[in-house]
Give the backbone structure.
Amino acid sequence: MAMPDSIEGHPATKREPRDIWGAIRRGWSGRCPHCGEGRLFRSFLKPVDHCDRCNESLHHQRADDLPPYLVIFVVGHIVVGAYLMAERMVTLNSWQHLAIWTPMTIIMAVAMMQPTKGAVIGLQWANYMHGFGGQEGEAEMVRPD
């Protein structure tokens, strides 16, 4: 498929394709999506501004709401499926269900949040999204309504 000459007034540029799955895997493991060696996070969910190994700029990432959405989607399906299976196999009262499923849901959600955010940042980097393409102002481009 040929690249268009321009998209909504922006000239088309030919970019080197990046390894999407490798970048997602490196982000999932908390490493820089570019080099895979530097740390991606300075605290639980705060990404570093620049990779300390390859100096890749990461300050403009925009993971926003996608990681929590994905975590809720996955954890919800696992917990509801496990709950329904347990309900068929054993008889538990409401307090027992509460004691089992509430901590399981919280632990799974917290455990998945940072890797999921890292994977989303890796996906953005691999697809040149939100400033990862090297063009100034790229993250600020918003389509007017």
